[in-house]
Structures are given as C-alpha cells and as structure tokens.
C-alpha cells in the first residue's frame, strides 16, 4: 500500500508539472517541461548526496574508528542485505540522522554528534536501521526526484506569472494566475505526503532490520524531545533538506497535518508498538561495539536501561 500511494502521489506531481508546461507553452511547453524535469532529476540523482553532505558539513568516519559506529552500521547493513554505506558524522548537538545517495551501492548514512551522545546502543541501532531501510526502499532517490519536481514546478509557475502564460488556455487571466499560485502549494503538499508515507515504511522496515521495534520507538521519543529544544543551524539554513532527517530538525508542528514533512512522532511510536506486539520477540542481533580503555563510546547512555523490557543482545 505504501508504494502504491507513493506511485499515485508521484503521478499527481508529474501531471501537475506537465499541466503547468501546457499552460505556459501549449504542447511544446509540455515537452520542454519534460526535458527540463529530466535534466534536473538527472543532475540531482547523480550529485545530491555530495551536495547535502556538504550543506551539513558532514565529515566521513574511517573504517578503523574507535567509536564502533562503522562496525555497527556494517552489521546492520548485513542484516538488511545491503552494501555497507559510507558513514558520516555531523557536528551539532541536535540528535538526528539522515540517509542519502542515488542507490544502495552509492549511499551514505549521516548521524549527528548529539545523536551519538544521547542515545543508548539499542536506540542508535534502531536509528541506523531506519536509515538503511530508506536506502533499501530507494527512498533517497524517490525523495530527490519529488523535491526536484517541486522545485521545477515553482520555477515554471514563476515563469508563467512573469510571461503571462497562454491566453488561449481556457482558464482566462484570473484562472491562469490562480493556477500559477496554487500549483507550487499543491506540489509542496504532494512532496510532504510522499515524505510522510516513506517515513512510516522506513520505520517498519528499520524495526525488522534491527530486530526490535521498541529500540526505534524509544529513539524517536528521545530525538523528538531533544530536537524540539535544540537548534540545528545548518538545517535552518537549508530547510529544503528537512524531509531527509529522521525527525524534522526545524521544530515543525506535532500533528500529522498537510504541511508536515514527517508523521507525528506519537503516531510513529504507536505503529512501532503495534509492530512489536505482532513480532512478539527480538528476531535479530546487533553485536556490541568494541570497548577498550582508550575507546570512546558514541552513545552517551552507557549505563542506561534498554528501551524495552525484553532482553536483547546487549545483555
């Protein structure tokens, strides 16, 4: 159902884009709009991961890091039957994370230092599993395409308002102006709806990858609580990337409304609790990261209790 809804929403986005092209230049305008969309999507598909990582000043983590973050990601990627993505860290106190990349073979997972400091090991595993689910489901590509379409629709609307559109399009001047104003709003709504749909799907798949939905549920609760109080300056400067994060970094409204890029955290936790009830028991194990006298634990809650009452691989 999630993929069907996504397909319908993307079809609506495409139809809206083509319709704007027709209003702007007739059949020729539709063709030009399609060519522009193809070029923009090709560029975004190829380079969006590098652009987003640079926007947030993400730094790569080497394979021999002493935090165990890369090893944890590798173990979870093996659970998900995925190539191991590149791992990045973003220096910001707000706990958050996102995945990017044009395909599973060229993907990256980025986590913030605030996330590593605040979450338990189980919770961190749940977050990384969620991001791996986005990669496995090709959500990184889907959201890049929809974001590009939304931007292109806004661009065409600006062109149409500036050049006046086609006088013979049947809508009249007032109708054309209304269409040009409402089209970008409609595109943004469709983009947000797709984002919410993919978040629910990644929550479910991520819970299955890490083995316990309550790990992710507890992580979402921790992240929401802290992210609502802690600013993420890079995200504020680049609000178009907000939909990529596991929790909206821009302090959005809590309700599942039309203008939200993420589902309400309470709704996501409720869905994960239901999934935990259906799964019944932990079905996957995530090895404990290495510990040593000089190693630093990325997860601040070294003595914290596990996020569920069930016994997990952490003992």
Structural account:
- The protein is mostly helical and 315 residues long.
- The chain has one domain (2-279).
- The chain has 9 helices and 4 strands, in the order H-E-H-E-E-E-H-H-H-H-H-H-H.
- A 4-stranded mixed beta sheet has the order 1-2-4-3, with helices on both faces.
- The longest helix is centred in the N-terminal third of the chain and has 54 residues, at 2-55.
- The chain is elongated.
- It starts with a helix and ends in a 36-residue tail after the last helix.
- The relative contact order is 0.16.
Give a quick summary of the entry.
The protein is mainly alpha-helical and 315 residues long.
How many domains would you count in the coordinates? 1
Low-confidence regions: 281-315
Q: What order do the strands of the largest sheet run in, or round the barrel if closed? A: 1-2-4-3
Shape: elongated
Q: What's the alpha carbon Rg, rounded to whole Å?
A: 21 Å
- Beta-strand content bin: 5-15%
How far apart, in Å, are the first and last alpha carbons?
37 Å
Structural class: mainly alpha
Encode the helix/strand succession as letters. HEHEEEHHHHHHH
Helix content: 55-70%
Largest sheet, in brief, is: 4 strands, mixed
The total count of strands amounts to 4
Mean pLDDT, rounded to whole units?
A: 77
SS element count, helices: 9
